[in-house]
Amino acid sequence: MKKTFTLVVLSLVLISAVFVGGCAQKAANPPAQTKTDAPKRKLVAVGECTFAPFEFIDEKTGKPAGFDVELIQAIAEASGFEVEYKNLDWNSLIPALNNKEADLVVSGMTITDERALQVTFSDPYFTSGQAWAVKEGSPIKTISDLAGKTVAVQNNTTGDYAAQKLDARFKEEKKPGLIIKRFDNAADVFNELKAGGVDAIISDLPVIREYLKNHPEDKLIIPEPAFTVEYYGIAMRKQDKDIHELINKGLAKIKASGKYDEIYQKYFGKK
Ligand code: ARG
């Protein structure tokens, strides 16, 4: 009897020792999960979603998708914040930062000196450039043949600015200028060429390439390589220094981890 009692006591002591030990270990070494228990900061990102493959509305989900959307999600994950991506008009993107409707513009936006007066750009995240496209069989064979022709661009984009420069160059060369038709969204630029409303379009090369891939029936061609070099950046309010850091550190992290390359390959294939 006494023996059984001793055994029971002994096992109880042992069991509690294991328990206490286990708990102590837990306290000293909290599982990773407890770290994320605090609610994450949420930032709102915006873009004009007719700019595939950077941002477009996914037909199945009806939600924004694309390289930029996945990029900012990966940056958010790497820097420990949450992000919601919203579709907005191109001309409302920078104003949305100023009226605090959004914290980040992730919209294939080229880093330019004029824009940098209003916003702070992240480190560059993509190298791009302007190119022009026409319908197959067009008499326009080189960029100089655009003199006196009509061209569609998205309003207030670097395509618009490139077209204005080209117009000025033609006029300097005593040639007829470029007739520029401006559209509020990137999709309408392509629609106008398709409808025969213009002779050519000027837009970002990766976006023209994506359009050609998705609409082979339109029979568009890109006769020459890109004629500008541009870098995309994420635009933020100048005063949000903490956000600048979250974005640049997150971008560096996903470049180092291979996550950036994974997203790049999904949309553009191997580098
Ligand atoms: N890269 C060009 C620019 O910054 C065009 C960007 C257009 N982006 C868009 N989502 N529509 O001016």
Automatic annotation (TrEMBL):
One of its GO terms (molecular function) is ligand-gated monoatomic ion channel activity. It holds the Pfam family SBP_bac_3. Keywords: Signal. Residues 1-20 form the signal peptide. Residues 43-271 form the Solute-binding protein family 3/N-terminal domain. SUPFAM superfamilies: Periplasmic binding protein-like II. It comes from the Bacteria. It comes from Candidatus Fermentithermobacillus carboniphilus. InterPro entries: Iontro_rcpt_C, Solute-binding_3/MltF_N. This is Basic amino acid ABC transporter substrate-binding protein. Residues 42-270 form the Ionotropic glutamate receptor C-terminal domain.
